[in-house]
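Q: How would the structure tokens look for this protein?
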Amino acid sequence: MKPNVRLLGIILCMSPAACGMGAGDSRSSGRVESVIPAPKPYEVSVIELRRGIFNRETVCNGRLEAIRKVDIIAEGYGRIESVNVGEGDHVKRGDVIASTDRIQAAISLRRARLEYDRAIVSMSERLLDYGYSLSDTGMVSPSQMKLIRMMSGLTDAEIGLEQAESGFGKCEIRAPFSGVIANLECQEYEPAGKRICTLIDGNRYRVRFNILETEYSLIEKGGVVSVMPFYDSSVALDGRIVSINPLVGQNGQISVCAEVPGTPQLLDGMNVRVILRKSVPDMFVIPKNAVVSRDGRDVVFLFREGRSVWTYVNILMGNGSEYAVEADKSRDAVLREGDLVIVDGNYNLGDNTAVVLND
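A: Here is the predicted structure in token form.
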């Protein structure tokens, strides 16, 4: 069968090549080429790199001890009549913590006073033997008066009276200083002579901690430390080192003692974090968030002419918020004063990435 010449001509005319149109002529074919927009620059924040003082920090664990702490003992006679405090109670100096039976103490005091009165009478008689009266004691020589007092028993009677008065006074157990009651052990009607409680002065604490001998250069007597309880790092108290043990222990540690002021947040025996600080001059100091990890190494990005510059660094020291760094010369890195270090928006950056400064 012969081909339909007319139909074949129509088909050939529909072909772009047959109709005189190039295959890539989008204007003739009606097609639109897609255009990929340039990536939007990352917004970053920078600081100017300067040499300055770096506050080196070393963190140790310590334990608080109240500087003034005493066990209160019921030293009176008989039994405990009353206990006037509870654990956690605050008392002032001179407050009565507890009291004991006074009957036996009162009897002993009365007997001591009688012995004292007898000794006075005896001394009066001795003075008359020497031609003096009680009103003339100022005329008696000191050596002779000493002999008369001993022979009359007045010296012994005075000592006995002082002891009896002291024993009677101990029937009321008073706080020797202001503080808080802890470890209450005795109750009413228990025998005297036992420990009643512990009194703690919370106005000042001693904190003991150990440092490695390699960190010995960080400490000196009078040096400043910061102390904070583990349960709340926002509570930070500054104290000073008061003693350094001049011996290195078997585990390579040195014992250090510091004193800090007390607050209601601190307790005797509490475990605390101790931070030692020492100023190191002439260091490049940058925020910790300026350092990122690339290829398993520490990197900072510098801002130069709208581009990020990948720069390897070595971290020399660190504290809670900053690093002291130097350029990693083994990677041909260079840091100069005045460089703009990117400190925010750097986590997704690479070398030579387009960046723009935040307003």
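Residues 1-30 have pLDDT under 50 and may be disordered.

Residues 103-129 form the longest helix (27 residues).

Upvote if useful.
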